[in-house]
Amino acid sequence: MAPPKHRRPGFSRKAQYGLFVTYVVAIAGTMVAALLLAISVADPAGFSALRAAGAEITAPVARMFSNVRRSAQNMNATAAAYINAGSQNAALQKQAKVNRKKLIEAQALRVENARLRGLLKLSEDGESQVAVGRLISSTSSSTRRVATLSIGRNFGVERAQPVRGPSGLIGRVIETGPTTARILLVTDAENLVPVMRASDGLPAFSAGLGNGTVLIKPLNLGESPFKVGDVIVTSGNGGLYPPNIPFARVIKKTSDGALAIPYADPGNTPYAVVIRPYQGEARAAQQAVAPDGETKEVAE
Predict the structure, then answer these.
(1) Which of 8, 185, 221, 291 has the CB geometry, 3.0–4.6 Å to 145, for a possible disulfide?
(2) What is the pTM (predicted TM-score) of this model?
(3) Where are the beta strands (DSSP E) in 219-296?
């Protein structure tokens, strides 16, 4: 036969002892409470002393619980600060990206403004200006070094006209269409430019190497008179390119001349100015002898 679900405490001594202790604690608590009540009424001063003694006894426990509570609060505050710091850090990083983008845009705008100011000054100073256009493309890997200009015959552009930018000479026109023109760059091996050293006017000529650099050779054969850092400008010889246009800077001395880098980089020069030849008869002569626009400019 199965035992009943609700057994009386009498069947278990452990349950009987637990019930007995509960009764004893309840009775003792009631008696202590009654005693304290009687003392508080009969002797308030004595009750105050007892209360102070009780506070002293329970103070360590209270301090312990207070420290535990304070530690928990500090942990919560630390966790909240960590979470807030993470969100603030993410917000700051996002703002930094925005500021970096704005800074890059501002720097690009300053560079563009500097180019436009240089081009404007060039336009104001040059009475031989034909038209201003944009360099819309340039070769970088073919055997020829040519660029395309966004203006052509409709703007007065003709073959054998020099082309320059704010930084220096870019090349010359070799082919024209109604709205575009092809430019033979100074770095092309077929483009020879009469130049001179700016410091003393030493005459020389430049030949493109097809790799973004030019070879400067003096007209007088012998030991190379150039040194690193020499500034090379156009000389005006030949009648095509006007004199004193910035051309290149020497970066290496060779046995018979010097290696130089042109100041004008077509890939980094959005605007260009087409100008009239230094001498009009030079343009006519070049057109007569070079119908295909692929002649060399040789220094006189």
Answers:
(1) 185
(2) 0.54
(3) 231-234, 246-253, 258-262, 271-275
